[in-house]
Amino acid sequence: MPYVKTRDGTDLYVKDWGSGRPVILIHGWPLSADSWDAQAMALAEAGFRAIAYDRRGFGRSGQPWSGYDYDTLTDDLADVMKETGADNDATLVGFSMGGGEVARYMSRHGGQGVIAAGLIASVVPYMLKTSDNPHGVLEDQLASIGAGIKKDRPGFFHSFLQQFLGVGFISSPVSEKTVDWAWRLAMQGGLKPILECANSFGHTDFRGDLPAFRVPTLIVHGTADKTVPIDATGRQAAKGIASAQLVEYDGAPHGLTITESDRFTKDLLTFLGQ
């Protein structure tokens, strides 16, 4: 079943590897399900069923004009779970923007069929800096994302992904070819979806969704994350989720599923085995 049709008729590309207890992997912006390949393979080899799908507007999925708000994106997740039969004893793991779908699923769909959750370098609970969210990102910085994409999308993503993956002037945790690979994934997304999703993850407040987490929840975040600051997100999520386990990766950048792949995969498998 390479595609699932959502309730509004959008086709979502789905990768379904292995068998066993389902683990649903929700990718970050602006990538695709392929960014989860290392973890998906390890999960399948360890006896789990790894399901990763391209969010609407990204990768090989359909690019409708609308539906890039978190309620619709979360309904897409629910549709993937139902159509793949992975709506029982499932673990939801969301990276970056994908953490928002996990949080909204727990509240909007009552966490139906979910026994555990993971928020990895996630935007939950709130990215925007406000008077009651002082460690968030300034509105001007969020607005500059859209402006940069509209001016020069290829150039913007080249610079953005270097920060995303912790590439510095002297050292880098990944090769230049890895950055090129991530860039190619990013360039598969449609312009409208990319812009709309950037607005959604930057401005959606998930603080009201946190009490809906009633399952063991793994939170992993890098202390050097310049894309999604840990003080506004990972650390606040850990405070707001009663059953949370926070693991901080000292010095790790945003894209830790890639830069710290072996360590993260081991931590995820350990969490799933509890």
Mean pLDDT: 97
Helical content band: 25-40%
Distance between the ends: 30 Å
Number of strands: 8
Global structural class: alpha/beta
Strand content: 15-25%
State the strand order across the main sheet.
Answer: 1-2-4-3-5-6-7-8
Main β-sheet description: 8 strands, mixed
Radius of gyration, in angstroms, nearest whole number: 17 Å
- What is the string of SSEs from the N terminus onward? EEEHEHEHEHHHEHEHH
Helix run count: 9
Unreliable stretches covering 5 or more consecutive residues: none
Principal-axis shape equals globular
What can you tell me about this protein's structure?
With 274 residues, the protein is of the alpha/beta class. It has 9 helices and 8 strands. The chain has an 8-stranded mixed β-sheet with strand order 1-2-4-3-5-6-7-8, with helices on both faces. β1 (3-5) and β2 form a beta hairpin. α4 (139-164) packs across α5 (176-186). The longest helix has 26 residues, at 139-164. The two termini are 30 Å apart.
